[in-house]
Amino acid sequence: MLGTIEKPRLVVHRSLKNISAQVLDDTAGKVLFSLSTKDKGLKQKFASAGNVQSAELFGQLFAQRAKEKGYSKVIFDRAGYLYHGRIKSFADALRKSGMEF
């Protein structure tokens, strides 16, 4: 499951207090787009980014900005995390916002 420029790989990472995601082109070895709850513009939107509601809001914001940059079809990589809780909430919010994987 390597990402290409036509269908890049979306990798999600979570910690106890934050969540981040990036869109990668594995063939060129480049990060095409990334966003985190620690970014300056987003930090004040989250009182605590370590819960399911914050993961859902972050998913909506990530999908909106990724689609603005032209990335709507991706390969979802949960990076070994179980598909529940914040990861599931993030993925569901991406799908609701129009991203395909």
Annotation keywords:
32% helix; four-stranded mixed sheet; 4 strands; globular; alpha+beta; 101 residues; 3 helices
In brief:
By secondary structure, the chain is of the alpha+beta class. It contains 3 helices and 4 strands. The two termini are 12 Å apart.
Descriptive notes:
The two termini are 12 Å apart. Helix content is 32%, strand content 23%. Helix 2 (52-68) runs parallel beside helix 3. The protein has helices spanning 40-43, 52-68, 86-96; strands spanning 9-14, 19-25, 30-36, 75-77. The chain is an alpha+beta fold. The longest helix has 17 residues, at 52-68. A hairpin with a 4-residue loop joins strand 2 and strand 3 (30-36). The protein is globular. Strands 3-2-1-4 form a 4-stranded mixed beta sheet, with helices on one face. The mean pLDDT is 94.
Secondary-structure map:
Blueprint: E1 9-14, E2 19-25, E3 30-36, H1 40-43, H2 52-68, E4 75-77, H3 86-96
Parallel strand pairs: 1-4
Antiparallel strand pairs: 1-2, 2-3
Helix/strand-derived class? alpha+beta
Task: Give the integer mean of the pLDDT values.
Answer: 94
- How much of the sequence is in beta strands? 15-25%
- Strands of the biggest beta sheet: in what spatial order? 3-2-1-4
- Specify the number of helices: 3
The helix/strand series, from N terminus to C terminus, equals: EEEHHEH
Number of beta strands: 4
In one word, what is the shape? globular
For the sheet with most strands, the description reads: 4 strands, mixed
Rg calc: 13 Å
Which percent bin holds the helix content?
Answer: 25-40%
Q: Please give the alpha-carbon distance between the first and last residues.
A: 12 Å
Stretches where pLDDT is under 50 for at least 5 consecutive residues are: none
